[in-house]
Amino acid sequence: MAALTPISRTPVSFYVPMVAAAGAFAGLLVGTAQGSSFIGIVVGALLMGALAFAMTQLVTAEKPVRWALTLLLAVAGFAMAGLAAGIIGALFGWFFGWFTFWLFEGRYRAYVAPYLTAGQVLWHYTFRVICGAILVFLITPILVVMPLSFNAQDFFTFTPEMLRFDPAGYSLKHYEDFFTNSDWQGALANSVKIAPMATLLSVSFGTLAAIGLSQQHVPFRRAIMAILISPMIVPLIISAAGMYFFYSRIGLQGTYMGVVLAHAALGIPFVIITVTATLVGFDNSLTRAAANMGAGPVTTFFRVQMPLILPGVISGGLFAFITSFDEVVVVLFVGSAGQKTLPWQMFTGLREQISPTILAVATILVIISIALLTVVELLRRRSERLRGMSPA
Questions:
Q1: Cα Rg for the chain, rounded, in angstroms?
Q2: Which of these, 83, 89, 120, 379, is most buried using a 10 Å CB contact count?
Q3: Which residues of the chain have pLDDT under 50?
């Protein structure tokens, strides 16, 4: 396939202001870090606009200019705040070099339909920038917490040693405290005892409910579905308060079984939704064929239905497990000191003792969540292949 070629070179009045606007945003970040946002915006806009004009009008070789800009901003960043700022400056230099020539050469038109107007092209890329900004906004707290968990000091901020990438500024002592401290290990043990049992109940009841509600002859299906998934909609504090008053009357408040049942109630809606979505493409003629061949309802369920809806069942179970493992509000109302889970211990650490070990625990939980969500995505793709919705 032939390589895509630029459509046309754009006028200076278009790409220089665009690069200047991007430079203003970068200047906002740098200026905020230096204590002057307004000066950062002005300097960033003027500097990047001038560099964009110079790179495209005064020099013809693209690659040497881009490398020179990367080196220039890397040196400037290193001179301002050390190695970390130098790396960030190099990334800025690479991006602005690419962005300038991407606009100047008209490459932004290469991957869109040629009949789109200038406004449509602008919205095409603006929409993607907005989505990217939202993604960065959502994952930034995670990206900040993870390196802080290796802080050698008992601080919740980056130390000068960490910013200089000095090995003395990093340590595994917070992870060591998590694995050796009896309070943290007791909380982890409680979470491991509660989450699997709650997941088992959620999967059992949620799967049966989804299969039952998928039958057309069931009366009031929509009302029953709304009631079953209401724990996802009702504010958690209201559900927790209701569970507290109900369980205290029947003797389950402050017990292991009470916490398990409460977490199971929170996980059932996830199982119902995922299994129901899987059953949308299920061929009911298979169950009728199994019945015609003499198979009973139980045999049909385990030999015919379950293998086909298993990806949805496992996905719902993983969501239910994550919900139980990360939940803190309900367990504060329903549980007691004997059921102190890992999130409860983290909440206590933030409120009472400000323990930096929380950062290490948060990093571990993030890694576990990423692993489980990866499994969910793999199961989703497998389910689509089994139902013929995607190529093998």
A1: 28
A2: 89
A3: 1-8
SS (H, E, C) the chain: CCCCCCCCCCCHHHHHHHHHHHHHHHHHHHHHHHCCHHHHHHHHHHHHHHHHHHHHHCCCCHHHHHHHHHHHHHHHHHHHHCHHHHHHHHHHHHHHHHHHHHHHCCHHHCCCCCCCCHHHHHHHHHHHHHHHHHHHHHHHHHHHHHHHCCECCCCCCCCHHHHCCCHHHECCHHHHHHHHCHHHHHHHHHHHHHHHHHHHHHHHHHHHHHHHHCCCCCCCHHHHHHHHCHHHHCCHHHHHHHHHHHHHHHCCCCCHHHHHHHHHHHHHHHHHHHHHHHHCCCCCHHHHHHHHCCCCHHHHHHHHHHHHHHHHHHHHHHHHHHHHHHCCHHHHHHCCHHHCCHHHHHHHHHHHHCCCHHHHHHHHHHHHHHHHHHHHHHHHHHHHHHCCCCCC
Q: What is the Cα–Cα distance from 275 to 331, expressed in whole angstroms?
A: 27
Domain extents in the chain: 12-111, 181-386
Phi, psi of 106 (to 5 degrees): 75, 25
Beta bridge partners, 170, equal: 151
Class of domain 181-386: mainly alpha
Tell me the C-alpha distance between 191 and 193, whole Å: 5
CA 309 to CA 318: how far, in whole Å?
A: 14
pLDDT at 355: 75
Residue 151 phi/psi, 5° resolution?
-65, 130
Which pLDDT score, from 0 to 100, does residue 4 have?
45
Encode burial over 169-184: b for 16+ CB neighbours within 10 A, e otherwise. Answer: bbeebbbebbeeeebb
pLDDT of 386: 64
Q: What is the pLDDT of residue 1?
A: 41
